[in-house]
Each structure stands twice: as C-alpha cells, then as structure tokens.
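Cross-posted from the bioinformatics board.
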Amino acid sequence: MVTEALRAAEAVEEKEVVDLLQALVRIPSHYPGPGEAGVVAYLEGYLKERGLSVFLQEAAPGRPNLVADLGEGEGGLLLEGHTDVVTPGDEALWTYPPYAGVVEGGRLYGRGACDMKGGLAALVGAMLAVKRALGRPKRPLRLAALADEEGMMLGVKAFLKAGLAQGFRGALVAEPEEMEMCLWQKGALRIRLLFPGRMAHGAMPYAGDNPIPKAARFVVALRELEARLQEAHPHPYLGPTYLTPTRFLASAGEGQLNVIPAQAEVALDVRTVPGVDHPSLLKELEALAGVGVEVLEDRPPVETPREDPLVQAAEEALRLLGLPARLGGVPGATDGTFLRAWGGLPVVVMGPGRKTLPHQVDEWVDLEEVVLAARVYAALAALYLA
Ligand SMILES: [Zn+2]
C-alpha cells in the first residue's frame, strides 16, 4: 500500500501541473463576468485527451460543473475544487496583469492562482498520476470542478441534488489552507430582520411608531447573546461564534429628516461553530427582536471525525511526503460544507496556498507547494482507494 502510494506520488509530473495551472489562470472565470464556462471547456478537452471520462452538468444557465471519472464502483473518493474566481478589481493595482499567469521567483501570480486554481491543478495532476502509476484504481476517483463557490455555491448544490456524490465515501477539498488538514468549517447564516414602524411627522413622534429604537435595541442586545454563545461553545480551530450586523437601514427618503420612517432593516452575518444549532439560534434571534427572521442563506457548521479513514489517509500521505500533519479549521464555508452537511461525506479541506491571500490584489501561489500538494493527493488517493 505504501509502495503504491509512493509510486503514485512520484508519477506526478511537475511540468504538467505547472503548465495546467498557468493555462487555468490565463482563462478569466470571475462572475459576474466571463464565468466558469471557459475554464470548464479547457479542462474538458484536457482531461478527455488524457483518457478520463468527462461530463458536464449545468449548475445554472451558462455555468457548468465538470465531472471527471477514473475507475468505477462504490466507496470512492471525490476530489473537489471550484472553477470560479472573484473579480480582479482595478487591474491597474496589480504588479502583473491578473490573467497573465506570470511566474517570478517560484511563484505564479494571478487572480485565482491561490483560490483555487493551484489546488485544482494539483488535483488534476494527482488524478493523472494515479492513472499512470496504478492504471484503474480499485475504487473510483471522481474530480468535481464546480461553479459558483464564491457566490451562492450553486455548483455544489446542483452536484448534490443530482446525486453525483452518491456512492462515494469521502471528499477532499483543495482550498488554500497551507496544506493543513482542516476538519472543521464554520457555519454561516445571512439573515434579515424588518422592524415595522408607522410614518409620522418628526415634530409629533407620538403620532407614529418609530422603528429605529427597536432595531437599535436589538443590535445592542446581540452583543450579550454573542458573548454567551462564545463562552458556551469555544472551539480550538475555528475561534468564536460571531453575530455581526452588516446592514442597518432606516429612512423615509433622502433629506426627509422630519419624517419617522415606516421600517428599519437590520442584516446580520452570523458565523458559528459546531455545537451552535442554527434552528434554535434563529428562534432565539426572533425572540430577541420581536419580529420574524428572514434567512437568505444557511450553511451549517460541520466537522469530520479525527478517526475517519480519510483523515488517516491524509495524515499518512503527508508523512510519506515528509510534511507535518497539522490540523486546522476553515473560518468560512466552502463547497465542503455542503458535501458534509447535505452529502453526509467525511470532508478534509487541504490545499496549497496561503490562507490570507485569496481575493487580494497580486494573489500568488508557490509552485513547489502546488506540485507537492499534487504528490500528497496522489499518495492519499492510492492509500484511500486501496
Ligand atoms: Zn476558494
């Protein structure tokens, strides 16, 4: 088993991985913008040419998911990455053009280099290495290159709804985590509360019902609830739960300073750790606010047990390649959140690239780290599928 893992790791070809990464970065895939279709078309041709069976699934109009398979049967491993990137913003702020894929000092620069075309190229490099070293593995290896991770995660949701994760035993997500084995991912809720009022002349507040003090009292009271949750649910890898107000709106219109508005709106970005139950938290927020909560997005906190075979394969693969097995947590949600929460799969999020670089100007990834990641993935797959 160890020999097979080492053979798979050695079959990773550095130039193949680097060239693919550069090609992927050179195809813009931010949304809104060109979206994922260009990257997916490129990958489709690339993988078919190399003997993998590939099909596309529409996640949303013009926004395909790509699925590539090696081997068949039950109990396989999903390799997951997203193909979309965030906007480059003002291109003049970049040292190298964001879609040039410039290599300098061992780093490849560009939008998506770190988040997460580096990880995606490493997954593909690993899959091809497994094919070269082991032929057809005993259990299947499926690459899921999904759309819209940076948005509403429509890609992974469509992938799961179509049953494309069924029959698989675990998922490896290649998000940039400095090759830490992230077994925990924070949950997220985006919610909105509307505090009703009644318009009136500002000179006669008693004639109306001002929603602003009600909304303000709620926002102040949140601090206490947040402190209570933080104390009740400490987490060594994810840090505290946050209830963060991100919008506070109330106005009767531009310049209408003598009018009590009819409504106040508060939006919250809630970040939770395992143990914080979203349905009960929402009830608590409603009780605190005295109004209903509108849930715009609900991503539960997830964890994978330390003793899961996937975690053990990851640990052993890292060790075989001379890397430390460090545990970690993901502060935001990823596609892995839904693979775990909806798909029920054990998930390890582990990829090349600095954690803090995604979405920044002059995003880069270390090429040596990407190639090493591909070797770790190949070894992991060989161990897990044995
Ligand atoms: Zn990402």
